[in-house]
Amino acid sequence: MSTGVQSIIFSGGALVVSVITLALTQVQRALDNRRIIRQQLTEVLSRITDMQIEGRKSPEAMEYLGPALTSQARLAAVLTDQLPPRLVSDIDYVSLASASFDPIEARQYYEKAISVARTAYYRRLARRGYASFLFESGDYEAGASQFNAALNEVTQPGDEAHAMRSDLYRTWGWYEQQAGHAESAGEKLRLAQDELDKIENLALRRSYDDQAGKNAGTDGRAEASVDLQRSGGPQAP
């Protein structure tokens, strides 16, 4: 083999190695960027949850935090758009929906949360938040449908299931009451109490009864988001 041919082969091989190295560097850089954006989204959503917790303490607190919450929600939406769907979890979507002031965007986030939910537990919480949002939007029929769907997600027996159904009926009843649907509200609140009375563990029953009293009249959208964040569910990798 001539020296010229060897030189061409060597140059070609070097070029291939160079191209592969460049490609691998770009891939690594893209992965690093995604990790940074994912971390930023996690931090922003955590701040949103903290503000929602504070805002639930009083109308004045929520009014004061409103502008900051709006700003953080917009930032979270921008970060989400920069990530592939597999890196955004159901918990993220519920948090985004609960903080969004765009009704079309909020619907989309809730529907995504339901579609990617990992278990019936997470689907139930996502549907509860969606149902609350729909009632607040005046779409009572769709809201009732989501509350029913959330109830259907609770299939296991036992005290925890009774507590979950009681919580759903209580939240549903409160929204029916706010909508002026007295008869439907009364029915749902009675069903909530019936489920609560079925809890055999008295300490657990008292705990849920006390919690129901504290949460009466709170924002169901924010409540679902906070509950999801507190559930310990992992964020997307």
Characterization of this structure:
81% of the residues lie in helices and 0% in strands. The protein has ten helices and no strands. The longest helix has 53 residues, at 3-55. Mean pLDDT is 81; it is low at 14-28 and 230-237.
Name the features:
Serine Threonine Protein Phosphatase 5, Tetratricopeptide repeat; disordered C terminus; 237 residues; single chain; mainly alpha
Beta-strand percentage range: under 5%
Q: Which structural class best describes the helix and strand composition? A: mainly alpha
Low-confidence stretches: 14-28, 230-237
The top-level CATH class is: Mainly Alpha
* Whole-number total of structural domains: 1
H/E element sequence: HHHHHHHHHH
Number of helices: 10
In short:
With 237 residues, this protein is mostly helical. It is built from ten helices and no strands.
List the helices and strands and how they pair.
Layout: H1 3-55, H2 59-81, H3 90-99, H4 103-116, H5 120-136, H6 140-152, H7 159-178, H8 182-197, H9 202-215, H10 220-230
Helix pairs in contact: 1-2, 1-3, 1-10, 3-4, 3-5, 3-10, 4-5, 5-6, 5-7, 5-10, 6-7, 7-8, 7-9
